[in-house]
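pinging the channel bc i need a second pair of eyes. not urgent but kinda urgent?? the chain im working w is below, pasted from the shared doc
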Amino acid sequence: MSQPIDGLLPRTVAWVQEEIGAQRRLLENLMLQQSALEAADLDSLDEAVSAARALRSGAGARDARRRMLLKDFQRLWGVSAKSMTLSSICARLGGSGRRLKILRDELQELLRDVARSGQRVRTLARYHQGVIREVVDEVVTNEGGSTERRGTLLNAEA
């Protein structure tokens, strides 16, 4: 390995490990949200959503580190940072990028799991939203009101 790669590779591995940890925490949080939605446990859902906001707060710093790493690879290899991926970096590193390739595969699988879990949570949330809308429409109609000119529900605590 060349001198510049000797410094870049450990930093890249550390960033990918950090991203894997963040995605695992996000996946755990989505599972908590899903459980809360399935149980219609609004307090647990509120806690999980608040925790998700806290998880998101670290994403900016990780993204900044990723951009810096890609810029360093760009300077080293003369390839646009915008066109680089972990796969392309692993391919360029060859055998010295084996550990990074393993981590990249783990990260890809986690990202697929997060996407699937996110879709389930989104579907459950939309289902609950539809049920609430139907209940409100039924109550308004039973009270002699019209649902044709209904407004939007607001969170009075917000």
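so DSSP finds five helices and no strands in the chain. and The radius of gyration is 23 Å. — does that match what u expected or am i reading it wrong
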